[in-house]
């Protein structure tokens, strides 16, 4: 009799614990890094059609087939921009986006020549299945300056290897 009182609750507990649960097993992550050099001619000026009522901005789309449904559902994407902070020594660092990028611009002078100077612009990114879009917006809410130099960016894609049991 005592054995029945012990076995019945234990059997019920085992059945409840193993009932309708899904077990997610992560077999580790795969990380892939892709580097792009974006030239000035690859930037497109948006005239407000992407975000109606918003300020104009520059954007550049890059195809990234590695961002598949598995990454979209269970992974993550991060982006970085290379910033040379000391021209004399060519020293720089990778900076996580979004980042206030020191954008080199040209301004036409009165004598018809051009003068280079640096201003800060917001550089950010968006990702979806199959592509990454880099976006430059002016910090003051006006049109961003045109790009005059190539920038280096890298995209890091982390995909979890997920199995459902």
Major sheet attributes: 5 strands, antiparallel
Termini separation: 38 Å
Task: Describe the strand arrangement of the main beta sheet, using strand numbers.
Answer: 2-3-8-7-6
Unreliable parts: none
Average pLDDT, to the nearest integer?
Answer: 78
Number of domains: 1
Q: Tell me the number of helical segments per DSSP (H or I, 4 or more residues long).
A: 2
Q: List the quaternary state of the chains.
A: single chain
The helix-strand sequence is HEEEHEEEEEE
Instruction: Estimate the helix proportion, in percent.
Output: 10-25%
Structural commentary:
- By secondary structure, the chain is mostly beta strands.
- The chain has one domain (24-164).
- It has two helices and nine strands, in the order H-E-E-E-H-E-E-E-E-E-E.
- The strands form two sheets. A five-stranded antiparallel beta sheet has the order 2-3-8-7-6, with no helix packed on it. It has a four-stranded antiparallel beta sheet with strand order 1-9-4-5.
- The longest helix is centred in the N-terminal third of the chain and has 16 residues, at 2-17.
- It starts with a helix and ends with a strand.
What's the layout of helices and strands?
Layout: H1 2-17, E1 24-38, E2 44-46, E3 57-63, H2 69-74, E4 76-86, E5 91-96, E6 99-108, E7 114-128, E8 131-138, E9 151-164
Antiparallel strand pairs: 1-9, 2-3, 3-8, 4-5, 4-9, 6-7, 7-8
